[in-house]
């Protein structure tokens, strides 16, 4: 009996391993099973000797014994044998009949000295049930309706771009009116080169910004805040100097934005230090994945080619019916397409980084990219429609909170808007892409679960005060402003009447290309915060967030929050 105890415990361990790994067995399992069977059937051999069975019976017993060695650890007969070896109950029977799925046991007499159970027998140990773990390899497609609408939109956009390019070439070659031909040639000569130059400059700046944020993250935050202010202010002043009504209007918009940017840079001074620490810490895993930038580079390359064709389509739309409507449709299509490209890169990076934090896995970037382009593409399309609107509403809510005063009407409007923002943040936020990438959830479900994680860890203040999305946005504005300065100065010397139009297109292209490139740092910060909220005790996280929360709770650190509904009004 003393020898049987450790054998049974090893058996129990083998059952637990099998419960975790399915049908797979360890190499030492058969050896342990054989030891258990040898001890368990020692009494059976004594009963067989007492009954003096024939040689045929012995041969049959050997066959069944070999079958017992191959029994599954969870088979009922094995459980009975384990119980016998631990509790010293009567030995197993001497006759076996093998069925299709189990083995039926007949009754046999047992030796007299084993006919009773010891008074202190231990119960048979059973494996504890393992908690269910959310799958990390969901095979279903998310947000299928959004995916269908985006694919339908892409088919229509490709057809429209191809048609407009064809009409532009047809008007240049086959137009019977010399005036039309001159207009086409003028556009090709004074419009197309500048726009294509803006595309080339924008992709160059995109690569430069992504490299800079990975190498000098702390310096980059300060640099981009004030460089964007200077570039947007310079672009506005330059456009006003041309003294054209259209360029003056665009220049005033740039100057107004520059003033707001400067005020914002002063307003968030207290948050820059903490956000720089988070950015530095979140970018540390990037060095473990040398190919993590490749999905972003692919998106930039595809975006550059598509924007080059898009520029030709805009030229074709200038000499087509309903020119304003065509240009508006092209702009909306390009904005959605570029946002989807950015979120595909975001989901790819988020999956690689989040699996590293949650499971310690070294994921294959190529497979994560393929998954983002297939299973998670619907969520990327759905989020691309709503996240920019959510960010815009967030800015409006902050502005209303600053304007709130003693006026009762403004007070009511501000809190009404804040209640709307409260529900929007819960059902749709940019942090959802981390759970979309990791668990394959839909956009709304991922938004809800992510916000619940933040509330559970009391991280709402930290999330609301994060400036990573603002830094990425300002980086895009900085690139767009640089493109405007170069293109506007060039256009003013060759064909000044095109200055305002080309400046807007250059800014739009520069902004979109840079936002695609900034998907990597944005995804890294998002993965760091969401994975910390899910498992704050992970050894990969330091005490940065924990110390910040302690300071906030003690009142020694004040964060400027995204305006939220005060608790005294939430119950109304």
Automatic annotation (TrEMBL):
Keywords: Membrane, Transmembrane, Transmembrane helix. Residues 7-38 have a biased composition (Basic and acidic residues). The keyword Disulfide bond does not apply. GO terms for cellular component: plasma membrane. The chain crosses the membrane at residues 145-166, 187-207, 219-242, 249-270, 309-332, 471-490, 496-513. It is found in: Cell membrane; Membrane. Residues 1-60, 84-136 are annotated as: Disordered. Pfam families: Choline_transpo. Residues 113-123 have a biased composition (Low complexity). It comes from the Eukaryota. It is a multi-pass membrane protein. Choline transporter. Belongs to the CTL (choline transporter-like) family. PANTHER family: CHOLINE TRANSPORTER-LIKE (SLC FAMILY 44), CHOLINE TRANSPORTER-LIKE PROTEIN. This is Choline transporter-like protein.
């Amino acid at each position: 009996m003393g020898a049987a105890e450790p054998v049974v415990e090893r058996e129990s361990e083998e059952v637990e391993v099998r419960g975790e790994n399915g049908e797979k067995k360890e190499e030492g399992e058969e050896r342990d099973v054989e030891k258990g069977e040898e001890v368990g059937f020692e009494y059976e051999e004594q009963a067989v000797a007492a009954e003096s069975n024939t040689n045929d019976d012995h041969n049959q017993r050997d066959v069944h014994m070999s079958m017992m060695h191959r029994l599954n650890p969870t088979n009922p007969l094995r459980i009975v044998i384990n119980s016998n070896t631990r509790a010293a109950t009567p030995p197993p029977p001497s006759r076996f009949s093998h069925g299709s799925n189990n083995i039926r046991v007949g009754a046999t007499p047992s030796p007299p000295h084993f006919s009773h159970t010891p008074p202190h027998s231990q119960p048979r140990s059973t494996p504890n049930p393992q908690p269910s773990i959310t799958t990390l390899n969901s095979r279903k497609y998310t947000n299928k309706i959004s995916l269908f609408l985006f694919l339908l939109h892409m088919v229509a956009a490709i057809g429209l771009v191809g048609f407009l390019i064809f009409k532009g070439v047809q008007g240049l070659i086959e137009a019977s009116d010399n005036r039309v031909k001159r207009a086409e040639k003028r556009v090709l000569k004074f419009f197309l080169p500048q726009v294509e130059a803006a595309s080339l400059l924008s992709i160059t700046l995109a690569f430069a910004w992504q490299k800079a944020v990975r190498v000098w993250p702390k310096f980059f935050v300060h640099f981009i805040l004030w460089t964007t202010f200077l570039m947007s202010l310079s672009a506005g002043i330059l456009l006003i100097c041309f003294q054209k009504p259209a360029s003056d209007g665009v220049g005033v918009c740039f100057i107004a934005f520059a003033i707001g940017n400067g005020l914002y840079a002063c307003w968030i001074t207290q948050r820059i230090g903490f956000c720089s620490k988070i950015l530095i810490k979140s970018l540390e895993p990037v060095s473990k994945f040398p190919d993590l930038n490749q999905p972003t580079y692919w998106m930039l390359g595809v975006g550059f080619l598509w924007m080059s064709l898009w520029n030709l389509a805009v030229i074709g739309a200038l000499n087509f019916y309903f020119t304003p409507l065509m240009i508006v449709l092209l702009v909306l299509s390009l904005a959605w397409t570029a946002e989807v490209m950015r979120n595909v890169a975001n989901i790819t990076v988020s999956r690689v980084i989040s699996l590293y934090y949650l499971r310690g896995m070294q994921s294959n970037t190529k497979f994560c990219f393929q998954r983002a382009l297939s299973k998670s593409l619907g969520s990327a399309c759905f989020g691309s429609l709503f996240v920019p609107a959510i960010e815009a509403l967030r800015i409006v809510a902050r502005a209303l909170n600053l304007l709130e005063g003693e006026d009762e009407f403004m007070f009511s409007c501000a809190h009404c808007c804040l209640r709307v923002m409260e529900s929007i943040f819960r059902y749709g936020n940019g942090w959802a892409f981390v759970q979309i990438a990791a668990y394959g959830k839909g956009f709304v479900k991922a938004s809800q679960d992510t916000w619940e994680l933040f509330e559970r860890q009391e991280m709402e203040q930290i999330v609301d005060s994060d400036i990573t999305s603002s830094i990425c946005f300002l980086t895009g504005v900085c690139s767009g402003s640089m493109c405007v300065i170069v293109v506007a100065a060039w256009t003013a010397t060759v064909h000044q009447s095109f200055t305002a139009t080309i400046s807007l297109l250059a800014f739009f292209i520069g902004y979109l290309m840079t936002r695609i490139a900034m998907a990597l740092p944005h995804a890294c910060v998002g993965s760091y915060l969401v994975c910390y909220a899910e498992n704050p005790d992970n050894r990969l996280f330091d005490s940065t967030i924990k110390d910040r929360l302690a300071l906030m709770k003690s009142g020694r650190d004040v964060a400027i929050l995204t305006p939220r509904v005060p608790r005294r009004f939430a119950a109304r």
